[in-house]
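Membrane protein insertase YidC: structure, please.
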Amino acid sequence: MDDQNKNLILATVLSFVVILTWFLLFPPPDKAAVDPNQAAVTETENPASPSLATAPSAAAGTVPGAESAAAVTADTPRVPVETARLSGSISLIGGRIDDLKLKDYRVTIEPESPIVQMLGPVSSPHPYYALYGWAPGTGLGLEDVPGANTPWTVENGETLTTETPVTLRWNSPTGMIFRRTIAVDENFMFKVTQSVENAGSAQASLAPYGIIARRGEPEGRKKFFILHEGVVAMADGTLTETDYSDMPDLDVMPSEGARAEVMSVADSGWIGFTDHFWMSTLIPETGTPFKAVAKYDDARDIYQTEAVLPTMTVAPGETKEVTTQLFAGAKEWETIRDYQNAGVDRFIDSIDWGWFFFLTKPIFWVLHHLNQLIGNMGWSIICLTLLIKALLFPLAYKSYVSMAKMKELQPEMEKMKENAGDDRQKLQQGMMELYKKNKVNPASGCLPIVMQIPIFFSLYKVIFVTLELRHAPWIGWIRDLSAPDPSSILNLFGLLPFAPPDATSFLAILSLGFLPIVLGISMWLQQKLNPAPTDKTQAMIFAWMPWVFMFMLGHFASGLVLYWIANNTITFTQQYIIMRTQGFKPDVFGNILRSLRLKPKGDPKTDKK
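Here you go.
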């Protein structure tokens, strides 16, 4: 076996191992069964400290006056929220922002599919909401501060829009007047200003806080290692990510009443929950120190994040206020980047770029701007492939030239093997001198393949993680580049009147779409630039490789398969042209006939002109 074939087989084996390992680590997610009769959740509060549940809760038991979940939803007045991109309402019990829908996004690609529900009230199957309040200090009791079940009244505004903020008001029994002004911009950022006016005769101290709480993990969570879902926090430039599955392992902190992780933020930061495509985040003003807390109540399966600001002292007749922002919406790269440019520290890192962020970030940046220029993400992926191949062309050219020179040296290498006999050391020394003399690097043939592996994984990360690929169409039947090709060879791509096997079926692995089959053919044609290896083992490996890859990548995202097809096509063209410039005429058609045993093996045409 010559060194060229050794290198190619080594690169093939490495590619197989890496991709197979990736496929085993990140299998298709199981569909979570949702019980349509799931009972509504009822939760209670204790506003003594910002903690779990619908409100701060550190102590067990029901606080007098706490309402049931059904009452909060059915009988409580609400303030409508209506913008070009959002719809929902704010509950006047607790002043919760607990009903929010994203108008621009639907659950599936079907036009009649429901709009994505971002936040849900306590009575919904999946409660998820934002709550603000004050923790009492010196001179105040629990009844003197607003909590989860405080009955707010509307002081100003009727509907929350981008032009009309809403102000809520509540008077405490001891003469403290609390106001909460809520505004929203044209995208997904709320601005919440909490104020307290001391109309009493005694000085009081209290601490403002914000809470995002949810019961259970997100519905339909994929649980892929490639994707972070859970708590995401930025504390003075340090990013912290805690998966939902890791939160039950947090340390129990009696002071917080649950398992918790506490981070002190001195100048700038934020904390919240990030899911696959959506995110909710509490963002105090830059320059304001605060305590960022991530909590989990395993008894009730409640996840919670908090931003607790410093205690304020309010003298009689004095008014103080504090403003925080709440992001609740889609993780659109451009929108989040604009918020970062407006002062939210490293907000773009709320998108999970992964370990290869130095590749995923620029790859997505280029893909995003190509899509803005072209208007179609599929064609943008093809253009991105062209750019990547252009950048790697010098390396590819050097590799192909080296491979061509190796072919020229093949007769001399065979003579060396005959002369060396069983003396392996003599053979190696002779070959090294031959390589040095002719300026050939036998390992360079592997470089293009090795370089493609991190690019392939980075593009896979970009396609899987970023919202811009979600439900992005290409042509015809490819309506979602982030999902596998929906067509199937088992029903002749829709010509036969039955549906392909479900993804959970064993036969699903045989249900290849049109794009994966084209991928296998493109790899097979690329092999035919050279005659099959004379060694039977090598020939067998090379013969099976395209079809194994076809099945391995068959259920990956369509955008990724499209990239691989474009890459193979461009590589075929590059290699053909380079081989011609080096004096070789690839006999592609002849090699195909020989592989099908329709042409004698002794009739190769891949010779020098």
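Notes: The chain is about 30% helix and 25% strand.
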